[in-house]
Amino acid sequence: MKTELVIVGGGPAGLAAAVAAYDAGIRDILILERDTALGGILQQCIHNGFGLHRFGEELTGPEYAARYIDEVEKRAIPHMLETMVLSVENKVVTAMNKTRGIFSIEAQAIVLAMGCRERPRGALNIPGTRPAGIYTAGTAQRFVNMEGYMPGKEVVILGSGDIGLIMARRMTLEGAKVKAVCELMPYSGGLNRNIVQCLQDFDIPLMLSHTVSRIEGTDRVTGVYIAEVDEKLSVKPETEQYIPCDTLLLSCGLLPENELTKGAKIPLDPITGGASVNENRQTATDGVFACGNVLHVHDLVDFVSEEAALAGISAAQYIQEGAKASSRSLSVSASGKVRYTVPQRIDHTDKAVRVFFRVGSVVDNAVLTVKCGETVLMTKKKRRMAPGEMESFEIPVSVLEKADGNLTVCVE
Amino acid sequence: MKCFDVAVIGAGVVGSLLARELTKYELSVALIEAREDVATGATSANSAIAHGGFDPVPGTLKAKLNVRGTQMMPALTKELGVPYRANGSLVLAFSEDDMVSVRALYERGLQNGVDGLSVLNAEELHELEPNVSDEAVGALRCTSAGIVCPYTLATAAAGNAVDNGAELFLSSPVTAIDKKDGIFCIRAGKQVLHAKYVANCAGIFSDEIARMVGDDSFCVKPRIGEYMLMDKSEGNLVSHTLFQVPSKMGKGILVTPTVHGNLLVGPTALNTEDKQDDATTREGLEFVKKAATRSVACLNFRTVITSFAGVRSVPNEEDFIIRFSKWDNHFLHVAGIESPGLSASPAIAQYAAELLANEGLNLTENKQFNGSRKSYHWFSELSMEEKNKVIAENPAFGRVVCRCETVTEGEIVEAIHRAPKAMTLDALKHRLRSGMGRCQGGFCTPLLTEILARELGIDQTEVRKNTEHSTLLVGRAKEVQQ
User: Fold this and answer.
1) B248: how many CB neighbours lie within 10 A of its CB?
2) How far is B157 from chain A (nearest CA, A)?
3) Most buried residue among A192, B19, B230, B362 by CB atoms closer than 10 A?
4) B304 vs chain A: nearest CA distance in angstroms?
5) CATH classification of B1-83+147-219+316-373 is 1.10.3720.10, yes or no?
6) Phi and psi of B153, rounded to 5°?
């Protein structure tokens, strides 16, 4: 079977990419989704706060997803549900589902939009026993919001990522007692509004520079030890204190899910964990694009949609016009407090380019510079930058024209 | 009253293989397990190695049974559909003193009858394993060593025993054993089972079982071993199992690929008192990291997907304790099976059956015995065309539930209903690897919970991780009260 454009993943990124590619003139599109419905992880995010940037109003996750699903349905863009993509190789996508078995699709272009997964307990290497009652925040969220079951009554949460904060409130509203949220770093990785609305409003203590040092319980969790950490993030044993609980939720970071990308031998950025892309979100392989949380973990879905639309339009152009020749390619690298940038390279300098990045620690009175060698091409200031929030700025054409070599983005 | 010919207490790898061995004969066999599933004790958390057999003292049961067991392993695992790989092992030396030990191990290996031994110099070593640390100056190579999945071996053995007529009693902890008119009455959970012979394969609890017939001739103490399992991205870092020159406490920290393509490092060796304590510790994990880095300097511990600890049963005698109780010559101890227990297990089963025969158990061949068994991974081993045929007949094989390890609903449903029935999340994990991949069940736990509840006809709130009180959910949303 042949299709012009295959989109791997029917979450917010895949949906927005499909709609944008359709509107750019592509009709032969197929979205492959592994879950039983389109919408991805938004379907379990029943809290509001989505869509402020994109729609100028506060929507719940399912409402935000529904807007895009409606657009996909209006355009009658085909999709397959409960369909797992097994491999992507030389623009051949091999997938599997109940009705077709294993099948292959030859695509002209592919948009990778597989999203991300949560860092599990094992990857955190928390010592102790391995009882029931340890979940990632997202797994707990699915149990509560989708399946209608409560995973526990007395909860400690490790990690103050947004899902952890949201679940602190959700579990509380469902009748559970959230005893503490511990954060390894001296600052939260979540949005400020979530700290206020999900913790402070419910008197849930946020313990910065704290971690779970040990898990207890043979059948089910019976308690955890929490402890302060030093500057090197090592546990200070003398600060250990015991909190009885039956559940430990983990919200310790998201990892782009790039096993297919690796299988396709597409190079990844070791910092983002996603593919290395140009300003059109094209990976190192012509005609293969990536967007959303599979590319880099976003703070707001609104920006996922925006990025995915760009990837969708770029894929459409690729199908219609073939690979666009690059007159000169500039790499973009991170420096100072900047951990990474997306895109990692600029292949075409005839249009302004928006660069997204995150800082590695909280920076007050931040000064952002874009340099080419020792030459400062542009400077911007911001009162505060934090790792939990994705930052972006636009490099105008005038600046790109001035660059005669690779770019460095720096925050001090 | 049904009276079994033999009751095997403990369905770890030793008990399960012994039960299977006995079904080769016209015997009625009970396999009695305290826990909710087979293979939950030392069998579930160990180094997963079939050792060559150069380490045990010549002439001991350990030496004889290790060498024979490892020789049996390739054919046995093939017959039972269990993952096994003859990857060979290396004992690394980091100094000239170590090289002396390596040569001594070589000599001992020859004495024990181990095949495929050679001593490598630094150059040969580094050519064979380029990622071995530069500090290693030589090694003992053993090409007859391999790696095996211990819990799949035990599960397949127990399942095959059941296929051949054995009865498996799960969740049946043995609390008392009496003897009346030459027949053992075994209180196992809620039932009383009767048997002419008993094989005590109760692992870390085997001394407590022995006490039930008044035998206090030995004791076993728990020794904890902590491990870290790394992502499949690291599975090809080394091809051999890498040991360091052994100490009194064990074979030291090893670095080894697993049959499933991950990399395993560990174990520590810490004597404890609590037989149920399988907690990892910060110190232990740090020690593993440090010691493992000595063998392979480029280990990337950011790729660790899980850490765990196993409890080994260390006897107060030097050798395996495989003998009849002095108090009863129909009560056979198969105890103190510490390392190289997994390697020796196929030979232990055979040897134990021989001992029972010596004490009058009638070993008449069971002509119906069928020792082969379909692998749990049969579906993933099919060609694309064959898979499509299966999916057309049963669409559940087309639905991937565990995305990291590509486990389908069809395989899950089959494992739930096939002997020994998988009734918990861990049971499924041990059979199919669902939830054992890089996301560690983050995505598939809710799906597996739903499938288990549906197939077992229970509520989702009754679905357990493993033990009776390890339920995953505390109630319906909106109904929870503090």
Assistant:
1) 5
2) 26
3) B19
4) 5
5) no
6) -60, -50
